[in-house]
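Lecture notes, structural biology module. Today: joint structure prediction for complexes of two components.
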Amino acid sequence: MAKNLEFEEYKYGFRDEHKAIFQSGKGLTEEIVRTISEMKGEPEWMLKFRLKSLEQFRKMQMPRWGGNLDELDFDDIQYYVKPSEKQGKTWEEVPEEIKATFDKLGIPEAEQKFLAGVSAQYESEVVYHSMQEDLEKQGVIFTDTDTALREHPEIFKEYFGTVVPSADNKFAALNSAVWSGGSFIYVPKGVKCEIPLQAYFRINSENMGQFERTLIIADEGSFVHYVEGCTAPIYSTNSLHSAVVEIIVKKDARVRYTTIQNWAPNIYNLVTKRAVAEENATMEWVDGNIGSKLTMKYPAVVLKGRGAKGMVLSIAVAGKGQHQDAGAKMLHLAPDTTSTIVSKSISKHGGKVTYRGIASFGRQAEGAKANIKCDTLILDNQSTSDTIPYNEIMNDNIVLEHEATVSKVSEDQLFYLMSRGMTEAEATQMIVMGFIEPFTKELPMEYAVEMNRLIKLEMEGSIG
Amino acid sequence: MSTQFEIRGLKATIEDKEILKGIDLKINGGEVHAIMGPNGTGKSTLASALMGHPKYEVTEGEVELNGEDVLEMAVDERARAGMFLAMQYPSEITGVTNADFLRSAINARRGEGNEISLIKFVRQMESKMKQLEMNPEFMHRYLNEGFSGGEKKRNEILQMMLLEPKLVILDEIDSGLDIDALRIVAEGVNAMRAEDRSFLIITHYQRLLNYIKPDFVHVMMQGRIVKSGGPELAQRLEAEGYDWVKEELGIVDETVGQA
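The predicted structure, tokenised, for the full assembly:
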């Protein structure tokens, strides 16, 4: 009953005429790494860190698990593009063409309604950033990562690279060598940010890799919700997005990190996201992956302190020619730690979704509990799904629950909805929306609206 | 215009097994027809085939609603043309609230640019739910998920009331209902009786017909309508069972398509 369309147009495939003022050219050399560091006016330690990471990157093997990386050519990628001389502090200072791009993405409207601070990444540099005054008064630092390195060197150096060391994996090493942009957040003790902090990301230059680096530190008893949404224009050659996100959640603090990524179908999205949760701290990843050629992303929580809690709530949608290899890692290192993983995957038009996850219990994880639930909805006979859970258990006194379901949109459900007047496409859409509802209901309002819109766009053309 | 619904020589198969062996039935606007019969005689197949369930293949015959060829229409087109099937086993759709579903269904019928306003929708839904003695919280529950049998049936009637169809098919709406629920559901149906609306009630038991008075009663056996009459036929079936019909017609096994 479902027919494949010949191709799907990427709905955000517009592209503006903005000219970058510096482009590194294709390929990765020590010279490029030095240039990046020099242009940013970085301290010596960061240059050393970058060069060491470059060495690591060269030494490390390509991962042979997960998705197919054969077509990824590191020599065909541009590692640094700087769009304009200075960074816009206020909306008025942002260059017009970039504004036009943001307009298409609807950022100013979103800001009016909900934004506490906006830090929108355009190519490799943050060009627009603003923050509400009350946050500043509370001592919250919310800035791009380059600025943080300049203006808050001590706290930066204390935490940078501590959660995801550059030798963690090949793509973390690459990011460590060429990182640029990303968000930096520091929330002081006991401060609770009522409104989510948000950033928009966008890749715009052909064959340009985007290697943002995000670092969030939530001090004791604090709370912050960081929201990030991505869309990228369509290009014919492969583009690489390889971010690193490090989060430190101190005692009794809580961090929620919400991402919706809607990449063009030619992008490799290879991201390392990890948080450390200390005593009674809570870390929540809400992670939506739509599009890309290949996504490999497994948000992790290292449950380091007694009573720490971790949550990953994710959805992945894979269409024609796409592979979402996503999941979660929960590392229980302390007593009474708890974790919840809810993974929702949808494959259609021959797309492939893989849930890959680790639940690990160390010797100290007395009384720890993990609950894992993976649900997959397959929309046609060409599409596939896989569930690959790994468990490592070093302590007898733990509870691990794992539940996995794979379903198709049933004939009876479609018949039921259609018998009330909905078209097959509308009925399918409604079933899919219902399937991902546990995810969308966790999103801030305007993101839930956007998410539903994205899913609708994705589903249009699903049914012939 | 008063509704005209006509079935002529309808045959249908499931997995190449013929279940409907030639059904003829004409329903005029405002009429209530009941189809009765023992289990396994093709009653529910008739309901599903009329609505266009993909499991059933219509091999012969014609179905017309106000002169339009129903069999040419997809399921959703039949619905938009004014047909409604209250199902015996309504599907559960997780994550979709009853209110979202109902509004989408109403808007599907009204068409783009003519959507019902939210306030008007909520008012209508609230008043109909009250009429059906449904707990208002069912608005926000996921569609049929965790509903009891009786709650599902009331929810079907709620949909019927909000969608205001021209031809209503009730497939065993009385099964699984206690006597109070049966009364409420029947009252809901009776409130919808109108000159331009026709009903086809499929039931196993006569007791529903104590509450919804039919104009015509048909007995189905072996995939055919074997006997038709007025309300008195239902009463005789209630009093004497089906054996006398079988005897009169020389039928030994009334079922159809059973292995």
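Point to remember: The CA atoms of residues 214 and 231 of chain B lie 6 Å apart.
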